[in-house]
Amino acid sequence: MAINIELLHQIIDEKLKPIVKKVDEQAFYAEEYILALANAGFFDSTNKDVPTILQDEAAIVRETAKVCMTTAFCIWCHLAALTYLRHTENMYLRKTILPQIEQGEFLGATGLSNPMKYYSGLEKLHLSAEKTADGYIINGTLPAVSNLGQRHYFGAIATLDDHEVMVLVSTKANGLELKEKVGFIGVNGSATYSCKFEQVFIPNEQVIAHEAKAFCDKIRPTFIYYQIPLGAGVIAAAVEGIEKVKAKQNGSNEYLQVQATDLEATYKEILHDLNGVAQQLTLKSVVPLRLKTVENTLAAVQANMLHNGAAGYVAGSVPSRKLREAYFFANLTPTVRHLQKLQTKI
Q1: Do residues 235 and 263 make contact, with C-beta atoms less than 8 angstroms apart?
Q2: Contact (CB, 8 A) for 153 and 206
Q3: How far apart are CA 122 and CA 263, in angstroms?
Q4: Higher confidence at residue 137 or residue 343?
Q5: Span 132-144, mean pLDDT?
Q6: Considering the entire predicted model, what is its pTM?
Q7: Which side of the chain, N or C, has fewer Cβ within a 10 Å radius?
Q8: Which residues does 299 contact at the CB level (< 8 Å), separation at least 6?
Q9: Cα 11 from Cα 17, distance rounded (Å)
Q10: Residue 334, preceding bond cis, omega within 30 degrees?
Q11: What DSSP assignment string belongs to 267-331?
């Protein structure tokens, strides 16, 4: 059963559109919007097959990104956490914590930017773990984890002597220190924090996977899949932005090389491909589409700026916000260089 798109748009109109400038300019976190989606059942996976879950949740990200990609990115973080819990073999997490996060009692975050880079040979792992009889003690610092707050959980991976373990961490865990990070040119409202672990104890019931690498290989395609509608939503917003100014300066925008019809065709092609990939999701199928979406998103926001002219360069303008959002999308893990490296290995 597909999501109720009319209800989704109603929640966007009521809970998100009025605060978009506040998110962008004042680093405001749209937590109430995400909770409204959860409370309305938009993240409920009960009685849904995998392709339907993927397509429905991609639509939530896409429609949100049309209005505010920063908040859509927060939803992606939430979906990443849900992905971990839907795939874990830990029945406590699947039966108890997963429903609570799907329903909005808690919200989720990813915490896997550093480990994903580690497994691709780009960085060292920042967290270390010590095994105890009842769980793990974790030390180290994650430089940036987004979509965090008082009622949140996030995934984390720490190294032992010969392998890595993946755990679910509560933001209220003893020994965990959060420090907010702002000052970005975009995504300031993403509730991003550095996370310092000092002897943080994680009980066995919160272990997502005792063999983290194999688990990451399993969930990585979904992790990447949910990012693609971030770009798709921005492309759709660029189409709308270009249409609004097509009569500008006596219609001279018609001489620009890229038109709204071109971007609309690209948008529809990405959605078609996204639906196709959902039927049989693999790293080989999703990485090229993620790269293609980045390239087309960057081209779309550039075209939108050209069509809008000087008005697009005014601080606080929608075209300038979409431009900044697109560059964040290009540098979201896996970044373009990371994706291009992945593409040579698959």
Answers
A1: yes
A2: no
A3: 33
A4: 137
A5: 97
A6: 0.96
A7: N
A8: 258
A9: 9
A10: yes
A11: HHHHHHHHHHHHHS--HHHHHHHHHHHHHHHHHHHHHHHHHHGGGGGSTT-HHHHHHHHHHHHHT
